[in-house]
Specification:
Blueprint lengths: L7 E7 L1 E2 L2 E9 L2 E5 L2 E3 L6 H13 L1 E17 L6 E16 L9 E7 L1 H6 L8 H10 L20
């Protein structure tokens, strides 16, 4: 049987404030890892909507995307199971909004951290993927694309 390859689509928020970046520490099958606030795109939502939702769920901060930092393709092989997954990540930067004090964070999120670029780079052995640092680097280098770069057709919003 011929299996069709289907990458997992994810969204990530690259959030900087006063020279520090917002990361999450999360439980994974590989142990505690650092990641940009990120997660899987849900059916019926655009990547922009997904990153707004994921940022709130993982950090309790409201987030408004202002630009696309980049689109990334990476592959991960889980040591424990041998699972082979390819991720297609849409990374956005934007404005940090209101913090919802007392809001429970997503399951598996242990805490949020504000780290300098040097601290992020120095902790690379704890990153969930190489894209954590790569997205921060691209943000630091001023890489920005208009939000209109990613078009979500209206058919995405309609159930079939």
């Amino acid at each position: 049987m011929n299996m069709r390859w289907k990458p997992s689509v994810t969204v990530a928020a690259i959030i900087e404030r006063d020279g520090r970046y917002l990361l999450v520490e999360e439980e994974t099958p590989e142990g505690l890892r650092l990641n940009n606030p990120a997660g899987h795109l849900d059916p019926g939502e655009s990547p922009e909507q997904g990153v707004v939702r994921e940022a709130l769920e993982e950090t309790a901060f409201h987030f408004q995307p202002s630009a696309l930092v980049g689109i990334y393709l990476s592959r991960f092989q889980r040591d424990s199971t041998g699972e082979d997954v390819t991720y297609l990540r849409f990374a956005y930067t934007g404005e940090l909004g209101r913090f919802e004090d007392g809001r429970a964070l997503d399951q598996g999120i242990v805490r949020t951290l504000w780290l300098t670029p040097a601290e992020i780079q120095a902790s690379s052995q704890r990153h969930r993927s190489p894209l954590v640092w790569r997205c921060v680097q691209d943000h630091l280098n001023g890489q920005r694309f208009p939000l209109e770069t990613v078009l979500t057709d209206l058919t995405v919003y309609h159930a079939s």
